[in-house]
Write a structure and sequence with these properties.
Length: 360
Protein backbone atom coordinates (compact mmCIF):
# COMPACT_ATOMS: atom_id res chain seq x y z
CA UNK A 1 0.00 0.00 0.00
CA UNK A 2 1.40 3.39 -0.96
CA UNK A 3 1.90 5.81 1.93
CA UNK A 4 -0.51 8.71 2.24
CA UNK A 5 1.94 11.60 2.07
CA UNK A 6 0.89 14.58 4.13
CA UNK A 7 3.03 17.74 3.92
CA UNK A 8 3.86 19.28 7.26
CA UNK A 9 2.78 22.85 7.90
CA UNK A 10 6.46 23.71 8.07
CA UNK A 11 6.90 22.64 4.45
CA UNK A 12 5.77 26.05 3.29
CA UNK A 13 8.85 27.57 4.86
CA UNK A 14 11.40 25.27 3.27
CA UNK A 15 11.73 27.65 0.35
CA UNK A 16 13.81 29.71 2.74
CA UNK A 17 15.82 26.92 4.22
CA UNK A 18 16.46 24.35 1.51
CA UNK A 19 18.44 25.15 -1.57
CA UNK A 20 17.70 28.85 -1.92
CA UNK A 21 19.66 32.00 -1.31
CA UNK A 22 19.73 32.49 2.48
CA UNK A 23 20.10 36.27 2.17
CA UNK A 24 18.24 38.93 4.17
CA UNK A 25 14.99 37.52 5.47
CA UNK A 26 11.85 39.12 6.81
CA UNK A 27 9.29 36.62 8.11
CA UNK A 28 6.53 39.20 8.01
CA UNK A 29 6.90 39.81 4.29
CA UNK A 30 7.86 36.26 3.35
CA UNK A 31 4.86 34.74 5.16
CA UNK A 32 7.17 32.10 6.64
CA UNK A 33 6.91 31.04 10.28
CA UNK A 34 9.94 31.66 12.51
CA UNK A 35 12.30 28.80 13.27
CA UNK A 36 15.87 28.12 14.31
CA UNK A 37 17.91 26.45 11.58
CA UNK A 38 21.62 25.97 12.17
CA UNK A 39 24.63 23.85 11.33
CA UNK A 40 26.03 21.21 13.68
CA UNK A 41 29.35 19.87 12.46
CA UNK A 42 30.62 16.35 12.83
CA UNK A 43 31.60 15.60 16.42
CA UNK A 44 32.50 11.95 15.83
CA UNK A 45 31.48 8.88 13.87
CA UNK A 46 31.40 5.91 16.23
CA UNK A 47 29.63 2.72 17.18
CA UNK A 48 27.96 4.14 20.29
CA UNK A 49 24.30 4.69 21.16
CA UNK A 50 23.69 5.89 24.73
CA UNK A 51 19.93 6.12 24.14
CA UNK A 52 19.08 2.65 22.79
CA UNK A 53 22.20 0.75 23.91
CA UNK A 54 23.51 2.63 26.97
CA UNK A 55 26.91 1.43 28.13
CA UNK A 56 27.27 -1.01 25.23
CA UNK A 57 30.68 -0.74 23.51
CA UNK A 58 30.44 -1.24 20.64
CA UNK A 59 26.79 -0.68 19.77
CA UNK A 60 25.23 -2.80 17.00
CA UNK A 61 25.77 -0.25 14.22
CA UNK A 62 27.65 2.97 13.56
CA UNK A 63 26.26 6.50 14.02
CA UNK A 64 27.25 10.02 13.13
CA UNK A 65 27.02 12.34 16.14
CA UNK A 66 27.00 16.12 16.54
CA UNK A 67 26.69 18.54 19.45
CA UNK A 68 28.31 18.71 22.88
CA UNK A 69 31.63 16.95 23.45
CA UNK A 70 30.50 15.16 26.63
CA UNK A 71 28.89 12.51 24.41
CA UNK A 72 29.80 8.98 25.53
CA UNK A 73 28.49 5.42 25.58
CA UNK A 74 26.48 5.77 28.79
CA UNK A 75 25.21 9.31 29.50
CA UNK A 76 23.06 8.25 32.47
CA UNK A 77 20.34 10.94 32.67
CA UNK A 78 20.50 10.84 36.47
CA UNK A 79 24.14 11.88 36.55
CA UNK A 80 25.14 13.20 33.11
CA UNK A 81 24.82 16.99 32.80
CA UNK A 82 25.55 17.84 29.18
CA UNK A 83 26.02 21.55 29.89
CA UNK A 84 28.41 21.16 32.82
CA UNK A 85 30.35 18.25 31.38
CA UNK A 86 30.79 19.61 27.84
CA UNK A 87 33.70 21.89 27.08
CA UNK A 88 32.55 22.73 23.56
CA UNK A 89 29.82 22.11 21.00
CA UNK A 90 30.03 21.47 17.27
CA UNK A 91 26.82 23.49 16.72
CA UNK A 92 26.49 27.13 15.70
CA UNK A 93 24.93 28.25 18.98
CA UNK A 94 27.44 27.98 21.80
CA UNK A 95 24.68 27.43 24.39
CA UNK A 96 23.55 24.22 22.71
CA UNK A 97 25.33 21.17 24.15
CA UNK A 98 22.58 18.77 23.04
CA UNK A 99 23.54 15.63 21.17
CA UNK A 100 21.95 14.65 17.89
CA UNK A 101 22.76 11.48 15.96
CA UNK A 102 21.60 9.33 13.03
CA UNK A 103 22.56 6.19 11.16
CA UNK A 104 25.35 6.43 8.55
CA UNK A 105 24.96 5.86 4.82
CA UNK A 106 27.31 3.48 2.99
CA UNK A 107 27.90 2.70 -0.68
CA UNK A 108 28.26 -0.94 -1.66
CA UNK A 109 30.43 -1.33 -4.75
CA UNK A 110 30.01 -3.96 -7.43
CA UNK A 111 32.81 -6.02 -5.85
CA UNK A 112 30.92 -6.18 -2.55
CA UNK A 113 33.06 -3.75 -0.54
CA UNK A 114 31.62 -0.78 1.35
CA UNK A 115 32.60 2.84 1.77
CA UNK A 116 31.06 5.46 4.04
CA UNK A 117 29.26 8.26 2.21
CA UNK A 118 30.52 11.62 3.49
CA UNK A 119 28.09 14.31 4.60
CA UNK A 120 28.17 17.86 3.36
CA UNK A 121 26.57 20.98 4.87
CA UNK A 122 23.15 21.97 3.61
CA UNK A 123 23.16 24.67 0.97
CA UNK A 124 23.87 28.06 2.51
CA UNK A 125 26.08 26.64 5.28
CA UNK A 126 29.77 25.82 5.63
CA UNK A 127 31.43 23.33 7.91
CA UNK A 128 32.23 19.64 8.14
CA UNK A 129 29.41 17.21 7.40
CA UNK A 130 27.08 16.82 10.32
CA UNK A 131 23.41 17.75 10.61
CA UNK A 132 21.32 20.83 9.95
CA UNK A 133 19.08 21.14 13.00
CA UNK A 134 15.70 22.87 13.15
CA UNK A 135 13.64 24.02 16.14
CA UNK A 136 10.24 25.29 15.08
CA UNK A 137 7.67 26.79 17.48
CA UNK A 138 3.90 26.37 16.91
CA UNK A 139 2.31 28.60 14.35
CA UNK A 140 0.17 31.53 15.35
CA UNK A 141 -0.08 32.63 18.97
CA UNK A 142 0.33 29.22 20.55
CA UNK A 143 3.09 28.94 23.12
CA UNK A 144 5.76 26.27 23.12
CA UNK A 145 7.40 24.67 26.12
CA UNK A 146 11.13 24.07 25.71
CA UNK A 147 12.56 20.72 26.75
CA UNK A 148 13.83 20.16 30.28
CA UNK A 149 17.21 18.74 31.33
CA UNK A 150 17.17 14.98 30.90
CA UNK A 151 14.69 15.04 28.01
CA UNK A 152 15.33 12.44 25.27
CA UNK A 153 13.48 11.04 22.29
CA UNK A 154 13.87 8.85 19.23
CA UNK A 155 12.34 8.76 15.75
CA UNK A 156 12.54 5.81 13.38
CA UNK A 157 13.27 2.11 13.72
CA UNK A 158 16.76 0.73 13.13
CA UNK A 159 15.27 -2.73 12.57
CA UNK A 160 12.61 -1.66 10.06
CA UNK A 161 13.06 -3.43 6.72
CA UNK A 162 9.70 -3.08 5.00
CA UNK A 163 6.82 -0.66 4.73
CA UNK A 164 4.13 -1.11 7.40
CA UNK A 165 0.58 -1.16 6.06
CA UNK A 166 -0.18 2.07 7.89
CA UNK A 167 2.77 4.43 7.72
CA UNK A 168 2.83 8.20 8.08
CA UNK A 169 6.42 8.89 7.13
CA UNK A 170 8.47 11.09 9.40
CA UNK A 171 11.75 9.87 7.89
CA UNK A 172 12.28 10.44 4.20
CA UNK A 173 14.87 10.83 1.43
CA UNK A 174 15.26 13.13 -1.54
CA UNK A 175 17.45 12.95 -4.61
CA UNK A 176 18.85 16.47 -4.64
CA UNK A 177 19.59 18.52 -7.76
CA UNK A 178 23.09 19.91 -8.28
CA UNK A 179 22.07 23.19 -6.72
CA UNK A 180 18.79 24.62 -5.49
CA UNK A 181 15.63 22.72 -4.70
CA UNK A 182 12.52 24.72 -5.38
CA UNK A 183 9.92 22.06 -4.67
CA UNK A 184 10.26 22.84 -0.96
CA UNK A 185 8.26 20.02 0.56
CA UNK A 186 9.34 17.87 3.45
CA UNK A 187 8.29 14.21 3.47
CA UNK A 188 6.04 14.74 0.48
CA UNK A 189 6.75 14.06 -3.20
CA UNK A 190 9.44 14.01 -4.50
CA UNK A 191 10.60 12.72 -1.11
CA UNK A 192 10.34 8.99 -0.56
CA UNK A 193 10.64 6.52 2.27
CA UNK A 194 13.05 4.43 0.22
CA UNK A 195 16.46 5.51 -1.02
CA UNK A 196 16.60 6.97 -4.56
CA UNK A 197 17.32 4.54 -7.41
CA UNK A 198 19.29 6.91 -9.61
CA UNK A 199 22.32 9.22 -9.67
CA UNK A 200 21.71 12.34 -7.55
CA UNK A 201 23.71 15.37 -8.70
CA UNK A 202 23.38 17.11 -5.33
CA UNK A 203 23.54 14.01 -3.13
CA UNK A 204 20.81 12.33 -1.09
CA UNK A 205 19.05 14.31 1.60
CA UNK A 206 17.49 12.52 4.56
CA UNK A 207 15.04 14.31 6.84
CA UNK A 208 13.91 13.19 10.29
CA UNK A 209 10.95 14.95 11.91
CA UNK A 210 10.30 14.57 15.64
CA UNK A 211 6.97 14.64 17.55
CA UNK A 212 5.64 17.97 18.80
CA UNK A 213 3.44 16.95 21.74
CA UNK A 214 4.63 15.88 25.20
CA UNK A 215 2.84 14.25 28.13
CA UNK A 216 4.23 16.99 30.38
CA UNK A 217 5.60 14.52 32.94
CA UNK A 218 8.11 12.01 31.61
CA UNK A 219 11.47 13.10 30.26
CA UNK A 220 11.91 9.72 28.57
CA UNK A 221 10.14 6.38 28.18
CA UNK A 222 11.17 2.76 27.73
CA UNK A 223 10.89 2.98 23.94
CA UNK A 224 12.02 6.65 23.93
CA UNK A 225 8.79 7.46 22.05
CA UNK A 226 5.74 6.96 24.27
CA UNK A 227 6.19 10.19 26.26
CA UNK A 228 5.81 12.22 23.06
CA UNK A 229 3.28 12.12 20.24
CA UNK A 230 2.52 13.57 16.85
CA UNK A 231 -0.56 15.80 16.61
CA UNK A 232 -3.95 14.43 15.76
CA UNK A 233 -5.34 15.30 12.36
CA UNK A 234 -7.28 18.52 12.31
CA UNK A 235 -8.19 21.45 10.16
CA UNK A 236 -5.59 24.19 9.89
CA UNK A 237 -8.43 26.63 9.33
CA UNK A 238 -9.64 25.93 12.87
CA UNK A 239 -6.33 25.89 14.68
CA UNK A 240 -2.81 26.61 13.59
CA UNK A 241 -0.74 23.83 15.06
CA UNK A 242 1.96 21.48 13.81
CA UNK A 243 1.06 19.21 10.91
CA UNK A 244 -2.35 20.82 10.67
CA UNK A 245 -3.41 18.99 13.84
CA UNK A 246 -3.81 19.37 17.59
CA UNK A 247 -2.03 17.66 20.46
CA UNK A 248 -3.93 14.69 21.92
CA UNK A 249 -5.27 14.91 25.47
CA UNK A 250 -2.66 12.36 26.57
CA UNK A 251 0.14 14.62 25.34
CA UNK A 252 -1.20 18.17 25.74
CA UNK A 253 2.06 20.11 26.00
CA UNK A 254 3.38 21.70 22.82
CA UNK A 255 7.12 21.29 22.37
CA UNK A 256 9.34 22.63 19.59
CA UNK A 257 9.32 20.81 16.28
CA UNK A 258 12.83 19.29 16.09
CA UNK A 259 13.92 18.27 12.63
CA UNK A 260 17.19 16.93 11.22
CA UNK A 261 18.35 17.50 7.66
CA UNK A 262 21.38 15.52 6.49
CA UNK A 263 22.86 15.76 3.01
CA UNK A 264 24.91 12.72 1.99
CA UNK A 265 27.44 13.58 -0.71
CA UNK A 266 26.92 10.61 -3.03
CA UNK A 267 28.41 12.35 -6.07
CA UNK A 268 31.72 10.47 -5.88
CA UNK A 269 29.74 7.29 -6.52
CA UNK A 270 27.87 8.55 -9.58
CA UNK A 271 29.71 6.11 -11.83
CA UNK A 272 27.82 3.39 -13.68
CA UNK A 273 30.90 1.15 -13.48
CA UNK A 274 30.60 1.14 -9.67
CA UNK A 275 26.87 0.48 -9.49
CA UNK A 276 25.43 -3.06 -9.72
CA UNK A 277 25.23 -4.31 -13.29
CA UNK A 278 21.47 -4.67 -13.00
CA UNK A 279 21.17 -0.97 -12.08
CA UNK A 280 19.79 -1.65 -8.62
CA UNK A 281 20.21 0.84 -5.78
CA UNK A 282 23.70 0.43 -4.16
CA UNK A 283 23.37 2.48 -0.96
CA UNK A 284 22.80 0.90 2.43
CA UNK A 285 22.32 2.29 5.92
CA UNK A 286 24.76 1.27 8.65
CA UNK A 287 21.90 -0.78 10.09
CA UNK A 288 22.20 -3.16 7.12
CA UNK A 289 19.08 -1.81 5.41
CA UNK A 290 19.27 -1.52 1.61
CA UNK A 291 15.85 0.06 1.17
CA UNK A 292 15.97 3.13 3.41
CA UNK A 293 13.33 2.31 6.01
CA UNK A 294 15.73 2.13 8.96
CA UNK A 295 17.18 5.64 9.04
CA UNK A 296 16.53 7.08 12.49
CA UNK A 297 17.34 10.02 14.71
CA UNK A 298 18.21 10.24 18.41
CA UNK A 299 17.95 13.40 20.50
CA UNK A 300 19.29 14.27 23.97
CA UNK A 301 18.48 17.78 25.18
CA UNK A 302 21.36 19.88 26.45
CA UNK A 303 20.71 23.61 26.02
CA UNK A 304 22.19 25.86 28.69
CA UNK A 305 19.69 27.30 31.17
CA UNK A 306 16.62 28.78 29.51
CA UNK A 307 18.38 29.49 26.20
CA UNK A 308 16.04 27.40 24.05
CA UNK A 309 12.94 28.82 25.74
CA UNK A 310 14.23 32.34 25.09
CA UNK A 311 14.77 31.51 21.42
CA UNK A 312 11.29 30.02 21.05
CA UNK A 313 9.67 32.99 22.82
CA UNK A 314 11.64 35.42 20.65
CA UNK A 315 10.53 33.54 17.50
CA UNK A 316 14.10 33.50 16.23
CA UNK A 317 14.73 32.53 12.64
CA UNK A 318 17.75 30.97 10.96
CA UNK A 319 21.16 30.73 12.60
CA UNK A 320 21.16 34.27 13.98
CA UNK A 321 19.24 34.96 17.18
CA UNK A 322 19.67 38.07 19.33
CA UNK A 323 18.85 36.20 22.55
CA UNK A 324 21.35 33.40 21.92
CA UNK A 325 25.14 33.24 21.95
CA UNK A 326 26.75 32.13 18.70
CA UNK A 327 30.31 31.00 18.06
CA UNK A 328 32.66 31.33 15.06
CA UNK A 329 32.25 28.58 12.47
CA UNK A 330 35.84 27.40 12.87
CA UNK A 331 35.37 26.97 16.62
CA UNK A 332 32.35 24.74 16.02
CA UNK A 333 34.31 22.68 13.47
CA UNK A 334 37.18 22.24 15.93
CA UNK A 335 34.90 20.65 18.53
CA UNK A 336 35.47 16.93 18.04
CA UNK A 337 36.11 13.87 20.20
CA UNK A 338 38.17 10.74 19.62
CA UNK A 339 36.50 7.58 18.45
CA UNK A 340 36.07 4.87 21.07
CA UNK A 341 35.53 1.90 18.74
CA UNK A 342 38.45 1.50 16.35
CA UNK A 343 37.85 -1.83 14.63
CA UNK A 344 36.96 -0.44 11.21
CA UNK A 345 38.39 1.99 8.69
CA UNK A 346 36.17 5.05 8.89
CA UNK A 347 37.10 6.54 5.50
CA UNK A 348 38.31 3.69 3.30
CA UNK A 349 36.79 0.65 1.66
CA UNK A 350 35.85 -2.17 4.03
CA UNK A 351 34.75 -5.75 3.32
CA UNK A 352 31.65 -5.49 5.51
CA UNK A 353 29.66 -2.92 7.43
CA UNK A 354 30.92 -2.02 10.92
CA UNK A 355 29.33 -4.45 13.31
CA UNK A 356 28.91 -7.04 10.55
CA UNK A 357 25.19 -6.37 10.44
CA UNK A 358 25.25 -7.31 6.78
CA UNK A 359 27.56 -9.75 5.08
CA UNK A 360 27.84 -10.72 1.46
Amino acid sequence: MAPQWKPLILTALLGLVVGQDPGPFDPATANIPPMLRFQCNQLVIDRLDPLVNPGVVPSPHIHQIVGGNSFNASMDPKTHDLVKQSGCTSCSFSEDFSNYWTAVLYFRARNGTYRRVPQKPSEGFTGVGGITVYYIPPLGKANTTAFRPGFRMLVGEATLRSMPQKYDPKVCHRCMPKTGDNNNLNCAPPDGVTLPHKFCEGGIRSVITFPTCWDGVNLDSADHKSHVAYPLDGSITDRFDYDGGVCPNTHPVKIPQVMYEVVWDTTMFNDKDLWPEDGSQPFVWSTGDENGYSQHGDYVFGWKGDALQRAMDAKCTGDVCSVLESQPADKAVDCTIDRVVQEDDINGWVPELPGSVMKR
